[in-house]
Amino acid sequence: MTVAEKSQRFADVRxxxxxxxxxFDCDNVQLMxxxxxxxxxxxxxxxxxxTKEVEGYxxxxxxxxxxxxxxxxxxxxxxxxxxxxxxxDYSNRQxxxxxxTLTSGGTITAVRPSxxxxxxxxxxxxxxxxxxxxxxxVVRFGESW
Amino acid sequence: MSLLSPExxxxxxxxxxxxxxxVTRRDIRKYAVATGSRQRKYLDGDQAPPMFxxxxxxxxxxxxQLTPDGVSIDSLLxxxxxxxxxxxxxxxxxxxxxxxxxxxTSTRTLTxxxxxxxRSGSLIFYEVIMDVVNDDQELVIREKTTRxxx
Lengths: 145, 150
Fold this sequence. Notes:
By secondary structure, chain A is an alpha+beta fold. Chain A has a domain at 8-26 and 63-141: Roll (Thiol Ester Dehydrase, Chain A), CATH 3.10.129.10. Chain A has helices spanning 8-11, 28-38, 48-53, 64-79, and strands at residues 18-24, 83-91, 102-112, 117-125, 131-141.
């Protein structure tokens, strides 16, 4: 760990800056692999007849924490080795399904020069623009793992 | 009249048995691939990405302990008078990096149960804090889950 070196990157960061957006198209294979990694046997993630007929969903449901991971990837990729994520606070607000194209992104909402820290509003949105998973992250520059 | 009986509220403070697990390069790689990571350090398993503690400490239960819909029952939780789960929230603090070979121990505590009036009736909220420490008892991750039942 390198601790709180003065970051040139931080000097260029402004409130209102947007992070690069990324589209995610999770298919059955990726969803199956993700739940296998978790050891999650919940049928709504792989049993399509059950999911539609018994639970009444329009399709296989994406696992909530996977969307949380995508929020992290959005900020982590943008940061590279220039900083690290200190904390996240997010919620899964509505379901998303296999076949949906989801988009991750973020906006800087606060910059704290004395700590070289920023707050980022992050989101996963669906094609209709609805917030599927909103959150906030606290990031510190000049420190990476 | 409150949905939360004194007996139910007495569960606040309940703790799970500590669970100790080893971090392997293979498990990190599988997680990175499954989440669609594009970063070499994660795909090669040199370092765990954020949220890797989620699969590391997911309950491994036997088949006969799963409900018919494939869900494992969380033994930390009491039986609530409302059962339909709504959206949940997660708050995670990252204190130390995680690398292959690390032994980590998690302990989960039911830290709160409370009730709120929603638009269509009562809602029950509960909070579980999971602390992940290394073998030197240093805090690596603290995660607070909030779940809503209706």
